[in-house]
Amino acid sequence: MNSSNERESFSQRLQQALKNAHYSPDSPTRLAREFNIRFEGRPITVHAARKWLVGEAIPTQEKLRMIAQWLGVPAEWLRFGGEEGEHHNGETNGNNLTRFESADVKLIADLQRLDDHHKQIAREFIRMLVRINYQK
């Protein structure tokens, strides 16, 4: 597969994964924003996100892995594809990856800003809520 087809195929898989995760595949601004709040490295520009969406570029391996984890798809499928429908459904396929929404990411960032004592209280409170939820 030549590099142009490779980029276009990646773009199609990225758009499908975004749709499956209930994000618009038509908004490079939203893609850049959602990516940047999750990625610890250098932020991407809206222009870079647009290039991913229109098949002009493929992200680095590190960025691709983060996108795959965020969207709940295998990084290998996102980059290289595979059997039709094999990983398109947005499921984690046993990889136990968690997909976080923007509010979840902000909550985690807020938790990380707390001192150790308050982090421990927050963790215990969340565990208690989870136990109560499972007992229903």
Keywords:
64% helix; 136 residues; 7 helices; 434 Repressor (Amino-terminal Domain); elongated; mainly alpha; HTH cro/C1-type domain-containing protein; 2 domains
How would you concisely characterize the structure shown here?
The protein has 136 residues and is mostly helical. It has seven helices and no strands.
Portion of residues within helices: 55-70%
Structural class assignment: mainly alpha
Number of strands: 0
Tell me, rounded to a whole number, the average pLDDT.
Answer: 83
- Shape-level CATH architecture of the largest domain: Orthogonal Bundle
Total helix count? 7
As a whole number of angstroms, the C-alpha radius of gyration is 17 Å
Query: Within the CATH hierarchy, at the fold level, what is the topology of the largest domain?
Result: 434 Repressor (Amino-terminal Domain)
* CATH domain class of the largest domain: Mainly Alpha
In quaternary terms, these chains amount to single chain
Pattern of helices and strands: HHHHHHH
Q: Per the principal axes of the C-alpha atoms, what is the gross shape? A: elongated
* Beta-strand residue percentage: under 5%
Q: How many domains comprise the coordinates?
A: 2
Q: Note the main sheet.
A: none
Distance between the termini: 52 Å
Q: State the low-pLDDT regions, or none.
A: 84-97
Structure description:
It is a single chain. The chain has 136 residues and is mostly helical. The chain has two domains: 3-99, 434 Repressor (Amino-terminal Domain) (Orthogonal Bundle), CATH 1.10.260; 101-136, no CATH class. Helices cover 64% and strands 0% of the residues. The protein contains seven helices and no strands. The protein has helices at residues 3-20, 28-38, 46-54, 61-71, 75-80, 102-113, 116-135. The longest helix is centred in the last third of the chain and has 20 residues, at 116-135. The chain starts with a helix and ends with a helix. The model is unreliable at 84-97 (pLDDT under 50).
